Amino acid sequence: MNKQKGGAAVYIIVAIVVVAALIVSFVLGTHKSKSNTAATTAKTTTPTSTTTTTNNSASSSTETTPVAENGVVIDNLAFSPNTLTVKVGTKVTWTNNDSTSHTVTADIASTDGPKSGTIESQKSYSFTFNKAGTYSYHCDFHPSMHATVTVVQ
Question: What is the mean pLDDT of residues 33-46?
Fold first, then answer.
């Protein structure tokens, strides 16, 4: 009987540690998002030129080049800028500068929104937005990481 109680205590302790880690991750992610809001809002612009494509396909890249005007940096468990506005036909590139892997996954699954799969550290993922709308997205591995791309005509 004592072994069962001891085993249950171990599971309770593990559960508490996991919940605490999730809370810390959420708080750090929220803090980072709030502290970047003013800085990233100033960077959010509607580009004057776009990249035109003939289909709505996503393309992965292993480049580690600096992030361009329509780029999003993944760093410190956050997307920056948190909000980006682009024109229809614009290719957006996410560059992972974190030491851990991330994803860029549309909140509402659709071929119109991004779905990167795993983006390893120091790698990039690009997606061309061919339909106007607001695309909220997140990281599958880190639920506190979320951002938005608004696509206009």
Answer: 37
Helix (H, G, I), strand (E, B) or coil at 3: helix
Assess if residue 14 is contained within a domain. Answer: no
CB 132 within 8 A of CB 85: no
**35's tokens:** 């502290």
Q: Does the pLDDT at position 58 exceed 70? A: no
- Per the structure, the complete domain to which residue 85 belongs is given by 41-152
**In CATH, what number is assigned to the domain containing residue 53?**
2.60.40.420
At 3, the amino acid letter reads K
Peptide bond into 81 cis (omega under 30): yes
Question: Looking at the domain assignment, is residue 5 inside a domain?
Answer: no
Q: How far apart are CA 46 and CA 95, in angstroms?
A: 20
Whole-prediction pTM value?
0.58
Tokens of 74: 């993944």
Residue 93 lies in a domain: yes
Q: b/e for 102-122, b at 16 or more Cβ within 10 A?
A: bbbbbeeeeebbbbbeebeee
Q: Is residue 103 part of a domain?
A: yes
Q: Is 75 helix (H, G, I), strand (E, B) or coil?
A: strand
149 half-sphere exposure, CB direction, 13 A CA radius: 33
